[in-house]
């Protein structure tokens, strides 16, 4: 099989159920999810295989699920096949957020992306995830989508924030507080 097909040379690409322009809102949405998936792979590479094996495994699972998100977003019509992204996947992200958040010290101020390379890379994942979510919101205004994808991306950006802090904490690197921030967060219960 050849990698190049030449079918996109005129500015269109195939989606599940037809062809659309390469700058279509649908392609922007799943393309940004694909970009996010690449950054997640990069972040995994910055983690310590011994200390962060659980994080690496969870992030690898997220990479598979981001592929599922992209597949659901590539459906031209929502009734073409069953959706892959489910509410249970969103619930599991919440469980992971709670688990990793319990490892980190209380946060009182806004923090800046930084600390370790792994944490910095996970903050990049967080911001790209937020952009992917915005692209999905734009798409949903125009065409029907799997609403669980939007929920999944919303929760996933929270997970990236949490695991970025976890990566710093495990490495013994404190979060970088935004020095102009007042104390804006409540202490953990």
UniProtKB/TrEMBL annotation:
Family annotation (SUPFAM superfamilies): Cobalamin adenosyltransferase-like
Pfam families recorded for this chain? Cob_adeno_trans (PF01923)
Among the GO biological process terms of this entry, one is:
cobalamin biosynthetic process
In terms of superkingdom, the source organism counts as Bacteria
Q: Which InterPro entries match?
A: CblAdoTrfase-like (IPR016030), CblAdoTrfase-like_sf (IPR036451), PduO-typ (IPR029499)
Q: In what residue span(s) does the Cobalamin adenosyltransferase-like domain sit?
A: 3-167
Q: Name one GO molecular function term.
A: ATP binding
Q: In which pathway does it act?
A: Cofactor biosynthesis; adenosylcobalamin biosynthesis; adenosylcobalamin from cob(II)yrinate a,c-diamide: step 2/7
Q: Which transformation does this protein catalyse, written as a reaction?
A: 2 cob(II)yrinate a,c diamide + reduced [electron-transfer flavoprotein] + 2 ATP = 2 adenosylcob(III)yrinate a,c-diamide + 2 triphosphate + oxidized [electron-transfer flavoprotein] + 3 H(+); 2 cob(II)alamin + reduced [electron-transfer flavoprotein] + 2 ATP = 2 adenosylcob(III)alamin + 2 triphosphate + oxidized [electron-transfer flavoprotein] + 3 H(+)
Q: Which UniProt keywords apply?
A: ATP-binding, Cobalamin biosynthesis, Nucleotide-binding, Transferase
Give a yes or no for keyword Transferase in this entry. yes
EC nos? 2.5.1.17
Family note = Belongs to the Cob(I)alamin adenosyltransferase family.
Its subunit composition reads: Homotrimer.
Q: What is this protein called?
A: Corrinoid adenosyltransferase
Annotated organism of origin:
Paenibacillus cremeus
